[in-house]
Amino acid sequence: MSRWYRYGLAVIVLMVWLAPVQVSAYSYGDANTEDVAETFKVIAGALSGDKADWKTVQDTHQVRRSEIQSHFGESVALTLDKNIEAKDSKLLIANYKAVLVMNLDRRFTYALKDVADYAAAKLLLAKAKATFDTLAPYMSSGTDDINKAFDDALEALGNPGLFGVGEKEADPDTFKVKVDYIYGKVKPSFPYKAYVKPASTATGSVKPTKAPAATQKPSATKAPTATSKPTASDKPVASDLAAEETPSATPGAEPSLEPAESISPSPGTTETTPPAASGSEGDSDELSGESESEVSALAEASQQGAQEEGHAPMERTDKTNPFITIFVIAGVVIVGGGVIWFIRKKGLL
Amino acid sequence: MQQRSLRYLSLGAAAIVLLTLFGLNLRFASPFVRSWDEVDFVLAVGRFDLLAMQPHFPGYPYFIAGAKLVHGWVTDPVKSLIGWNAALACSSFIPIALLARRYVNVSAALWSTVAIQSMPYMWLMGSRPMSECTGIAVLWWYLWSVRMAADRPHSIPRLGAALVIFSLLMGIRVSYFPFGLALLVLLIYQYRRESNKRIGLRRLALAITAAAGAQLIWIGGLAMSEGTLQGFWNLSMAFIDGHFSEWGGGVASAQVPLGTRFVTLVYDHLIRDVLLNRLAVLGALYGCLIALTGCGIWKLGSSRRTIALDGLKHHKWLIIILAAYGGWVLLGQNIEKPRHIAPIAGPLMLLVYVSALKTAHWLKLSSVTGNERLWNKANAAAIPFTLAAVVIVQFISGAQLLKLQAEQQPAVYQLNDYMGALEQPLVLYTWEETRVLGYLKADYEHRKVYTYDYFQAITSSETEQRVYLTDHVLNGFLAQNKAAGLDVVPVAHFTSDDRFDPVYSEITVYEWKKRDSDN
Asked: Whose CA is closest to B57, among A331, A107, A170, A32?
């Protein structure tokens, strides 16, 4: 019978040998995080305190730049670049907050599109919530109502239930009302100031700022299509270098019920193809996949994030993911058992 | 005749004690939701949503499904979870007694069961909305089913039952997977017993397929809770991705060396908290019991010794899987929480009790004469008396703790009351306390924060709000920046028993004084 001890110990030793790197301090990741928002937190953190850490800001922004550029347009990414270049921390933070608002819109737009797909819509809503949670400290009031609206929106997505228990139908109309309400509440607090090139370098067709807004189809559920439009940086400006760019920020008006306004096509929500000469390092491949589901784009972005982890400035804790841990250990148990069985069969033990 | 009525009396008393344990579990069901994990479970009873962390990954589907079932009659989700826990804990006396019965008589088996079920730590878990209690109860059924299958290597139903019960166990707590080693040992054992290797191999393949299929039931149920398989996959990917963008980073998680972890796990958690429940008298009684047993075994002589040690000998498989589970907890589980090591306490004590009672039995029958015979008889009688004392001490202290657990306000609840009474606007920065505060529907702002830099960035914008933070936050900050302690003033301190709240039993609230020079 002492053989059993030997088998057992052999398997345990195998497990311990293969497992520790994976399992030490294992913890579950949180799907309720949003990369753009996390980037903002690092940047805001780096700029706080006595002396701003522009190196961290630059590195962190660089990791997220292509995502920002592909979803909100080259002009937005360029504006942030220029803010960093000018070391204008107030303007950079203000603009990054505005980018978060654009991100909120991006998540809502795709959630509305995928509203029939429970899991996808829910995930996008969670990303939107993470975005809002990052903005919440900067809002003076009304966050309770917005949190409530998020809860209601989640409720409106329905629920497939656990083993069929607790099943609930989705209510797309309520969902739409709730997310429009949230966006309408958040948007006015965080205006965006686009960077404008000095007049001498402005080239190409000249269009008024509001023109895209007028031509945009006023449907909230419509997927933004990648159209070749002049970038926002080409637009003319009266006197200031920084132009106010918030057409929907009309206080008092009820923007929540007006899709055309609440999903106003600011440069942030319009997919703009970056000009070939822009010289940015963003890959335009991501744009071609824009018609696909946002979730797959999300997965892409995350893969990219993982690849860039090597030089990502964000400090990361040594958390391992549960799936790999479980599969590795299960694999070890099966393989280890197989090896022992094989050795037994060969009569070596 | 008298012997017989005495036996019935003993059996009846044991049954009554077991039912009393169950009844007290329900009577003193804890109304509090103490920790992040408990909130997760309680919310899941109302709405199952993996993404919203109700419950947290990996889902605990059978635990929640059972509680949902109870929820049909009980409106309070906390009580639903406790009802499910207590009912399963009560049911587990059957496999424990059946396992013990293999080595000792019915009465001894039942009293061993009582001694195991009344261990205060285990008993208290039956009155809390945590998944451990149900997990441990099903673990007992699983251990019994494996033992039954080992008895008849050719019985397909017995093997099938073991595989299905293991799937139930995994569907309640995946972290108990090292116990699956018992199935592996069982399959190897059965294969070796089979003379026709081709049949043996076919059986092995079939068993592995069936085991995987049984696991797929709960995994499938979980996946369907996300609507579609694709949706579940996306969610899983998001969880994996989530770990790359963990909360702005900078969590000061000091790596504890393995030796310290081992001591904490074995001494602080297993021996002090789970087995002895911090009672010196219980430690003394256990010491007595082990000394009496050891003394008895030594005196039995070599011939009898082997028979007395039967209990241990036939439980080699049990020792192997307990060691495997212990190794997993040591390396892979959160070392702050004693509950992770709790599952090995019951089987460990079963081995002790069975060995002790078996020794007593053989001492009584030992054939030596004269003085030594008298001595042996005394030794034999002392063992059941010590066991009875253990049961009495456990029952009394357990009942007191059960009442305390149901009545003492957890420190987080006290914190919430205090913060709620303060003048708003204010914001409280926390770690995991936020989850409980959110569950309690706190009407002031509270937020989880880990990094000092980010905290500074958001506090400088909140000029009109007063800023508070808990000691966990502050200690995290101090690990990042020594200057973090300069601007804080302690304003309140809350405590509760750390047997109920291992991590958040002491909470200090600090007020953050903004420096004028900054503004």
From this structure: A32
User: What single-letter amino acid sits at B233?
Assistant: W
Distances (CA, A) of B440 to B46, B51, B408: 15, 20, 16
* Alpha-carbon span B224 to A241, nearest angstrom: 54
pLDDT of residue A317: 39
Contacts of A326 in chain B (CB under 8 A): 58, 174, 177
C-alpha closest to that of B415 among B346, B359, B351, B491: B491
Average pLDDT, rounded, for chain B:
86
Backbone φ and ψ for B495, nearest 5 degrees, come out as -135, 150
Phi, psi dihedral angles at B27 (to 5 degrees): -65, -40
Window A:282-341, CB contacts with B under 8 Å: 295, 298-299, 302, 305-306, 309, 314-326, 329-330, 333, 337, 340-341
Mean pLDDT of A255-272: 39
pLDDT in tens, B446-462: 888 888 888 888 877 65
Beta strand ranges found along B144-256 (DSSP E): none
CB contact under 8 A, B317 and A306: no
- Best of B41, B443, B454, B487 to substitute, by most chain A Cβ atoms within 10 angstroms, is B454
Inter-residue contact A43 to A93 (CB < 8 Å): yes
- CA B452, CA B478: separation in Å to the nearest integer? 8
The domain locations on chain A are: 2-25+322-345, 35-311
Question: Around A9, how many Cα atoms within 13 Å sit in the side-chain half-sphere?
Answer: 6
Q: How far apart are the first and last CA of chain B?
A: 91
Nearest to A11 by CA among A346, A345, A341: A341
Mean pLDDT, residues A79-88: 85
- Cα-trace Rg, chain B: 26
Cα B98 to the chain's mean position, in Å? 22
Q: Which of B69, B184, B226 shows the shortest C-beta gap to A118?
A: B226
Q: What are phi and psi of B194, to 5 degrees?
A: -75, 125
pLDDT tens across B380-438, in order? Answer: 889 999 999 999 999 999 999 999 999 999 999 999 999 999 988 888 999 888 999 99
Closest alpha carbon within chain A to B465 = A140
Give the Cα separation of B103 and B125 in Å (integer). Answer: 28
* Interface probe with B: pick from A165, A326, A335, most Cβ of B within 10 Å: A165
Q: Is A143 on the interface with B (CB under 8 A)?
A: yes
Note whether A99 and A43 are within 8 A (CB).
no
Residue B49 carries which DSSP code?
A: B
Bridge partners, residue A168, by sequence: A159
pLDDT-based confidence at residue B240 (cuts at 50, 70, 90): low
Q: First CA to last CA across chain A, in angstroms?
A: 13
pLDDT tens, B489-505? 999 999 999 888 888 89
DSSP H or E stretch at residue A244: strand A243-244
Tell me the H-state helices in chain A.
2-18, 20-23, 35-47, 54-72, 74-85, 89-113, 118-135, 143-156, 172-186, 211-215, 259-262, 285-288, 294-307, 322-345
Task: Compute the distance between CA of residue B491 and CA of residue B508 in angstroms, rounded to an integer.
Answer: 8
Q: Cβ–Cβ of B56/A28 closer than 8 Å?
A: yes
Q: What whole-number distance in Å separates Cα of residue B150 and Cα of residue A215?
A: 76
Question: For B460, which of A28, A48, A118 is closest by C-beta distance?
Answer: A48
How far is the C-alpha of B45 from the C-alpha of B41, rounded, in Å? 7
Interface predicted TM-score (ipTM)? 0.73
For chain B, the structural domain boundaries read 152-229, 411-518
